[in-house]
Every structure is written in C-alpha cells, then in structure tokens.
Specification:
The chain is α+β, with helices and mostly antiparallel strands and 460 residues long. The protein is 26% helix and 22% strand. The protein contains 13 helices and 17 strands.
Length: 460
C-alpha cells in the first residue's frame, strides 16, 4: 500500500473533487467530531452529501493507496484521533442523512450519517419506536455497527440483531447490499463487527410497535449512594426483562447552564424504561420508590421522549471514557465502586455508570456480536474542559475501570470503549477468524481504518 508522504504531490489529492486539505477554509471544522476532545488531523476530509459522491470519493482515494476512516457523528472518535490519521482521509458522513418509514413493514431505511433523533421522530409519527441509544444525536450507523444498546434492550435485544440490510461502499467505490439473502457473510460481520469492512451509507432497521413507554429517572443525593446502589443491585438480580435501567454516580460542575438542583452537586441517578402497563410498572418500580428519591419522573410518556431520559449532553462536548463488562456484583464489587466514585472519592470523574444487561441481551444470535455474557456494563466518563486536562481526565476514568476489573466478565461493548483497545478481548477466536475472512474478501488492501479494528491472527 502506498502511504502519503511529503514526496507525494498534493495535487493528486487536490484533483479529487470534494476533499478538504489542511490549510483549506473549513478544514478545522470538517475534521472536528462530536467529541471535541478528539483532536483529529487527517491528510484530508470528505463530507459527501450523496451516496454517489461518497462512492466516487472512496474509489479515487483508495486508488492512490491511501487509507480511509469512515465517521458519522464522531461520538467515539478518540481511538481514531489517538492513531493520528496521518495516512488517512477522514470520510465524514454527517451531511449524508435521511430517513423513510415503511409503517406496514415496520422498517426504516436510514441514510448513513442520520442521527437517532430524526429516526425516533419519524417512527413516532406512525406509532412506532426504534432501538435507539441514550443520546439523540448519535449516528444510527456507528451505533449499530458496534452492537447498539438501548433502553429497550433487555426486552428486544441489540439493535444490530434487528437490521434487515446494510448498504456499504467497498474500497473500490462499489455499492454492495448485505442482508440475510445477499452477501450473508458480510451481513453477519456488520452486525456488531465495526467499521473494518467498508463505509455503511444506508441500513434498513426493524421498528417496534411501541407508541408509549413507562420511563423516567429517580435521583438521590450522593450521600445515599451506598443504600441505593445495593438496593438497585438486589432489584436487578431477578428483574423482569421488560425493565432496562442504568445507575450513575454523577458529579456536576457548578455552572449556570445546569438546573439548580444539579449544578455543583453529586447525585445518584437511576433511569430507564419499563415496557409494561401502568399497574405492572408501578409494582416493578416500588422497591426503588421505597428509597424515597428526591426526584421521581417515571411516568407514562410518548416513546419519542425516551431518547432524552438519560440527559446526555445536547451539544458537542469534550470527553474521555473507559469501560469494563462485569459479571455478578457482590458486596465487595459495590464497595470498590463506592471507593472509586462514591461520596468519599477524592478524584472521581463526571460519572460512573452501570447498565443492567441480561434478558434478550444474553440470548445468542448469529452475528459478529452474538450477545452479551456480562450482567452489567460499566461506563465511566469525564469532561475535558481544556486540552491540558485530558491526561488527568483519562486517569480518572481509567481508575474507575481498573477498580472494577476484578469482576470483569464477558467481551466488552465496543461502543463504550473510547480508547485504543486490544480488540482480541472483544471476539471469540473463531469469530475473529471469520471476521478476518470477510475483511479479506472485501478489503484485501486494508483500506479501511476503524476505531476498533478487528484483531489480527497469528502470523502464518
């Protein structure tokens, strides 16, 4: 493969319409992802607005022997930024958007850079819901390629397991459709296997016949963390799969943009959804309400409102994160988490979160990510208000993850890994080998640069 060097005439790149090079007007804006802490410096950026333009650009760039890094919203951009992108063109898909709903089939066709808010609103108009993430402005494609963990997940599984078809641009600039009947091996690989195979520019996803959900949040002061954490752990052990919730130990900065009840405070938050009627939801939530939350917003709401329940930042933000998949949480595990992020922790990040898994997530599917063996997913995040603080913030989130590694169980969830990671822990050896065969068929030159590339096998 030819790698761009100073000896290569930049005119070769300038000859490709649609590329933005360093020094060009708009380059800094184009290279900036949603996660503002990810300082990306590709040799060029493309922002296609049509699938045809994306295919043309991919074919021309690959013909020069350069690598291509596809990216939609850029929430999980940190691993690409850490690699430097000095030999890659960044293919930003955030201007390539659109959604259409087939209400009769309960299917949405979503163009590659579309964010969940657009899909959720379009589906709601037909009394339908999508397996969206906790943030409304995450791209559908990136979320699904990593698996897709929603507040519907314990009842209805990973989003990746409910894709009907992918449309992907290959390194040659060709558009290929992958489904259970057409290119089934590629279809298998794209269901959780990440961005190592091509640029996904459209996908057809199944929708849920859900118009309303019982959802919301409960909040306590951080002083109640020990009691709430233990009660939530006990509550989740034998919980009906209709309920999917998370628990966060959160520390908010004292800024005026926050509501007074959050600004400058440390709190415990439980949020999520219960897919049951009013009476059954009340019964299920009763043990949590017995803890006398300071705030309780759980109620019947339109399904479209669920995308805002988790209170993820509504605008691009600088952040770093770390993650561990966990098994059963004994009392020692709870004590370790409280020591690292509870009331007496001296240097804790913005939040340390536990997401409850199990239910449909534990049921194996024929996909690159077949399901989750873990019972809880730990996700720690900290803000980076200025670049000079990125190392301190990274140390804080890594300390949370390290404190919980003694209870690690199962492959990690790639969408929660916001650092360069050894992905050999993410896939069983036979799964990784099968993924390599698919990559060899569709990208033998290793054109595509993924945030989390599939693990390499042992040398022949």
């Amino acid at each position: 493969m030819t790698i761009l060097t100073p000896a290569l005439d930049p005119a070769a790149l300038r000859a490709i319409p649609g590329l933005i090079l360093p020094g060009d007007p708009g380059y800094d804006e184009a290279r900036t992802p949603w996660n503002l802490a990810a300082d990306q410096h590709p040799i060029a950026v493309a922002e296609p607005t049509t699938i045809a333009d994306a295919a043309r650009i991919v074919g021309a760039v690959a013909a020069l022997g350069l690598r291509i890094a596809p990216q939609a919203s850029g929430h999980g951009a940190m691993p690409l930024a850490e690699r430097g992108l000095s030999d890659a063109v960044l293919l930003r898909l955030h201007r390539l958007t659109g959604v259409s709903i087939d209400a009769e089939r309960r299917v949405a066709r979503v163009i590659g850079g579309t964010i969940w808010r657009e899909v959720v609103d379009a589906a709601a108009a037909h009394g339908l819901a999508a397996r969206h993430g906790s943030s409304p402005d995450v791209s559908v494609s990136g979320y699904v390629l990593g698996g897709g963990l929603s507040f519907y997940a314990r009842e209805h599984g990973l989003a990746a397991h409910h894709v009907r078809a992918f449309e992907m641009i290959t390194a040659e600039g060709d558009l290929v459709r992958a489904s259970a009947d057409s290119e089934p091996e590629l279809f298998w690989a794209l269901r959780g296997g990440g961005g190592s195979f091509g640029a996904v520019v459209a996908l057809e996803i199944e929708l849920l016949l859900v118009a309303e959900v019982h959802a919301g949040m409960m909040l306590w002061d951080m002083s109640a963390a020990s009691a709430v954490l233990q009660a939530w752990r006990d509550w989740t052990r034998d919980l009906d799969r209709c309920a999917t919730t998370s628990l966060r130990l959160m520390r908010f900065p004292p800024i005026p943009e926050l509501p007074p009840f959050l600004s400058g405070r440390a709190v415990v938050v439980i949020d999520g959804a219960v897919l049951a009627d009013e009476a059954r939801s009340a019964d299920l939530l009763a043990p949590l309400r017995a803890l006398d939350p300071e705030l309780d917003t759980f109620a019947r709401m339109p399904a479209a409102g669920l995308v805002d329940v988790h209170m993820d930042p509504p605008v691009p933000s600088p952040a770093v994160g770390d993650h561990v998949m966990l098994g059963e949480l004994d009392d020692a595990a709870l004590a370790a988490l409280l020591d690292a992020a509870g009331p007496d922790a001296q240097d804790a990040p913005l939040f340390a979160e536990l997401r409850h898994l199990g239910g449909a997530l534990a049921e194996t599917q024929d996909a690159a990510v077949p399901g989750f063996a873990g019972e809880y997913a730990l996700f720690a995040v900290d803000l980076v208000p200025v670049p000079e603080l990125i190392h301190a913030a990274t140390a804080r989130v890594c300390a949370i993850a390290d404190a919980m590694r003694g209870w690690a169980h199962g492959a990690p969830y790639l969408n929660f890994l916001d650092r360069i990671t050894d992905t050999s822990t993410a896939y069983a050896p036979d799964t990784a080998q099968r993924m390599r065969r698919v990559r060899d068929a569709f990208d033998p030159a290793r054109t595509w640069l993924a945030a989390h590339p599939i693990p390499e096998g042992a040398p022949a």
